[in-house]
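Human: Note token order:
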Amino acid sequence: MNQVNDNKLKKQLSIGLLLATYVAVLAYLSNYIA
């Protein structure tokens, strides 16, 4: 039971990290283009 929660937390963290990286790249590209 505890391991399932741990896996779910890791999944949410990885998704959040992916989103943060995506947003950072978008912001960098928009600043670079403009």
In short: The mean pLDDT is 92.
